[in-house]
Predict the 3D structure of the following.
Amino acid sequence: MVDSELLAILVCPETKAPVQLADDEVLGRVNRAVEAGQLTTRSGEVVQERLEAGLLREDGKVLYPIRDDIPVMLIDESIPLEPLS
């Protein structure tokens, strides 16, 4: 998992808002959408792999995936969550 010291300094690269680890409820919604082929990244690519973890922007609108224990803090790789509402 992401080191707590690293988590304390990470922010959304777009808004500079704090991020936190996504809880099981958020990850469940995300993974159901992935399985249904209904989730895309900010760049429009369909997300094809389930997420084990992610960083949720403070406003709850964007998720940054964590892959192999490494946060992917790229705007184009972020996952907008508003379509899941």
About this structure: The mean pLDDT is 95.
